């Protein structure tokens, strides 16, 4: 119950924060007055032509409630004009906003702030939907740590058998006086894989070429060779719930960093263009990120309603690239081939940026 109340509070806070950067523009008001109560300018209409404040200022409890609802959902229509275009015709939305249609739509930053707050609220209330971090879902069931260790042991046992088989074939070839170059390369490759597994994950085949026993297999033994990263791994293994909380909290605080991370890469797709400036790219990126966050929220709600595979994985994996393609086509008037090529590059760049962002969040979690 407390989680639901906190989630509602986060949504309200997000809406009001979005409203703080999305002041009233172009909205009708039946009220008026002789002077503006904010700056004292004589009014010639429902809004002050100097500071923009409404001429009519209410002082009723219902008016206060209306302000809250208006700030969160903007009942006059901005949100409902913005979302359908954002989800299905993002290029048209981006281009119209860049060209000056501001009163009809939510600004990119206001929408992004609201999407961040909403994402945090929904995932805080409903969880990530990934299940217990100490278990792994497979074929409708779960694997405990011991079962995972046994499964890894089976893999490494097979690897040891492969190495033994290659060594036997190599010995037979040498005894028969046959060429052994190919067999030696094959054996060396298998040993490199085994050594890499042991160094990185802490399990694999030992120095004798034997598979390690299950009790010696531990995912807490993962090592990269970089002390700082290994320290983060140790902290995550020591208290995964705390690390997950820090990750969510930092993502909530620093989500805005994805905008400056992404915009320069988009500029590189249209270098030295006179038609499109950095402002265009910032609007594009902010609308695109807002959509991705809202898609996550939508998918999580569907998951809570019992909708699962294959619909949600299909939605999360295939629709974002298609959305980027449509947004590029509509925003920059690119050809189909040009938009497809740029969308492919943009998906790759987005993945790199997300990895960098998550690495930064993990570093902050380890330091904090």
Automatic annotation (TrEMBL):
Swiss-Prot/TrEMBL keywords: Membrane, Transmembrane, Transmembrane helix
Transmembrane is among the record's keywords: yes
Transmembrane helix is among the record's keywords: yes
Pfam families: DUF3667 (PF12412)
Ranges that cross the membrane: 105-126, 251-270, 282-298, 304-322, 343-367
Name of protein: DUF3667 domain-containing protein
